[in-house]
Amino acid sequence: MPGDLRDGRIVIVGASLAGLRAAETLREKGFTGSLTVVGEEPHPPYDRPPLSKQVLLGMAAADTTGLPMRPGPPMSPDLPMRPGPPMRPGLPTRQPLDADWRLGVRATGLDLDGKRILLADGDSLPYDRLLIATGTRARPWPRPEQAALEGVLTLRTRDDAARLADRLAAGPRRVLVIGAGFTGSEIASACRERGLPVTVAERGTAPLVGALGGTLAKLATGLHRAHGVDLRCGVTVTDLRGDDSGRFTGADLSDGDRIDADLCVVALGAVRNVEWLADSGLAAGTHGVACDAGCRAFDMYGIVTDDVFVAGDVSRFPHPLFDYQMLSLEHWGNAVEQAEVAAHNMVTPEPRRRPHLAVPVFWSNQFGVNIKSVGVPTFSDQVVIAQGSLRDRRLVAVYGYRGRITAAVTVNMAKWLEHYQRLIETAAPFPPGPGAADGHPLVTEFPLPSDVPDPKGLSHGPTVALTGHLPDRRLTVVRPAG
């Protein structure tokens, strides 16, 4: 965008939460040029958190989860979602947003030198500045012939949620959920709330262990079993079985057991949508597209670009509160906040650009409890129960690393989250002092190991990936001629 940063051509690849929020912010910041948003799905941007919660419970239809203009935080997880009116076709906002929406078409390549996006329909889009916000997709079952069995589903998109909600409403004899991360646990919770028998298979030692560590994951184990989930931990699903007509009938486990079921939901985590960037020259790999704290993408040699930006689940970015490790987050709030920073920096001269320093926040509703997290629990070696009790399923767990607070998780005590967020932001010492929050002494007298597992030992991928290394890609050394 030579000369005026508020004019020219901007393309956003990714028409979900981060893409929408970036488009709105660009206009709010005074960008008057051409704005194009490309999305692989045919639907206007919609909200994903309700898909594994209210939609599966039949409290809302999948097509009523459209995003409003200027999205705030997700609705309070303590209250049921009130379904709104279906979104009208076309513009995904309540007020006109001056943008060209290219929905239902996939980006297939990026020409950095020519500054063009290649599309699956054969078209290409020139740009002066580009925002990559392609997010993630559900990790499929690794054997395609088994994944294709009728009754084997994943949950990521609006269409996925509609299909799964219909199958749950039909009353399957038993549901098998593979993976006990947040998505798998929420699916299991929805099954039990509907009165459906459900088996959960998890390679790790407990549900949510990859997000909360082994100590607090014991609470999640108790929740599953108290609500009648047939929980199988420390095992893997080795095969999905089907009948002669191609219908899913059950699964074999690594311990030799067999599960008979007529519906299977594969909840093995997410895959970041970076394949279209394979030959682009950007630092794009398994953990996403690497960028600096100002959301500017790195090329494969570690040199920052100035016309390609990244936001949302597909990004990897450094954070000073976590030793500048590269974070990959699958969080609603991160997508919004990073998109706003990226959009601001795309149209702002360098002296006035700002970094993306928001502390990660995540929440989940399952088995009648509200779990909220601030910070990065997996960036820890110790944990202490600061308030409440495990027995009452009402508590605050505070995590620490090298003598400072790095995260807190609340269970049905979300009102204390802001207090602990301030402690994280100010690098307060760990463990917190007695009575730091509510005047009562710490529940656990001494810190316990947080027992964070190696992600390779889990069925589900972590929602926060602390990668600490460059994308796994062999670099080509370029030497000048002569």
Automatic annotation (TrEMBL):
GO molecular function, one term: oxidoreductase activity, acting on NAD(P)H
Taxonomic lineage from the root: Bacteria, Bacillati, Actinomycetota, Actinomycetes, Kitasatosporales
Domain FAD/NAD(P)-binding stretches: 9-339
Annotated Gene3D superfamilies: 3.30.390.30, FAD/NAD(P)-binding domain
UniProt domain Reductase C-terminal: residue ranges: 362-432
Protein name, entry field: FAD-dependent oxidoreductase
Alphabetic keyword roster: FAD, Flavoprotein, Oxidoreductase
Pfam families referenced in this protein's UniProt entry, alphabetically: Pyr_redox_2, Reductase_C
Recorded GO CC terms: cytoplasm
InterPro entries membership: FAD-oxidoreductase/Apoptosis, FAD/NAD-bd_sf, FAD/NAD-binding_dom, FAD/NAD-linked_Rdtase_dimer_sf, Reductase_C
Cofactor or coenzyme needed: FAD
